[in-house]
Write a structure and sequence with these properties.
globular, alpha/beta, 5 strands, about 240 residues, Diaminopimelate Epimerase, Chain A, domain 1
Length: about 240
């Protein structure tokens, strides 16, 4: 008589509590989104958190933006940050615009120039009231033609100033920059309409008046671009 074969149970018991905890933690980490970069406080027309501007350039630019607002009512702000910390510049730009509320109430005539130093990215957020004059195409052209070349040369003061001047020109219908790839080598220096706003800004550099009008830059159209592979190190 054959010996009775032992019964082998194939039932699997529960996972070890420690292993179960690890699996749950991993699932939570995969499903929880990364914390968004905090929007800096609006402390003035120029918020240079990345330290890209010289103190003198920051002071002059702030005064010039104040004069432009008093003359044209358009509100322009500049923000630099050290890094986006993994955030996209598009999402960050929208949050900045919603938090800062640049632009006059009922006009939405605000513009924010945003620069991320370590990510080497630039974005221009434009209020609805200016989308007819400062289009996505023009905003991208300003970044490619006016800001990026100066940044590549290590001229951050000049790049940000050139961007602000071009933004003002676009709002006035005077900036007609062409995409960099299509720019003719035979073209001469900047024309009268390119120089006039710059003269106006320089003439008012030392006027320290700062207005306090702020309002609703609600949901903006913007143009963003990377300035890779350039280096931000000074030449």
């Amino acid at each position: 008589m054959n010996a009775e074969q032992p019964h082998i149970s194939r039932h699997r018991g529960p996972l070890h509590p420690l292993l179960s905890g690890v699996l749950v933690l991993m699932m939570l980490l995969l499903t929880v989104p990364a914390a968004a970069l905090e929007v800096p406080k609006l402390t003035g027309r120029v918020v240079d958190n990345a330290g890209m501007l010289s103190p003198e350039a920051e002071r002059k630019l702030s005064a010039a933006l104040g004069e432009l607002e008093n003359t044209d009512s358009t509100q322009v702000a500049v923000l630099t940050v050290p890094s986006l910390e993994g955030d996209s510049i598009e999402d960050f730009g929208i949050r900045v615009a919603e938090a800062w509320q640049i632009g006059q109430k009922g006009k939405d005539n605000g513009v924010i120039l945003i620069v991320s130093k370590e990510d080497r990215k630039v974005r221009i957020e434009v209020g609805y009231g200016l989308e007819g004059s400062l289009t996505d195409v023009l905003a991208g052209t300003i970044i490619d033609n006016e800001i990026t070349p100066r940044f590549k040369a290590g001229d951050f003061d000049g790049g940000i100033m050139a961007g602000v001047v071009s933004i003002y020109q676009a709002v006035q219908g005077q900036y007609k920059g062409t995409p960099k790839a299509k720019r003719s080598r035979k073209s001469g220096g900047p024309g009268f309409f390119l120089i006039l706003p710059l003269i106006f800004i320089v003439a008012h550099f030392f006027t320290p008046r700062l207005g306090s009008r702020r309002s609703s830059l609600r949901r903006e159209r913007g143009s963003g671009g990377s300035i890779l592979p350039c280096s931000f190190s000074a030449a």
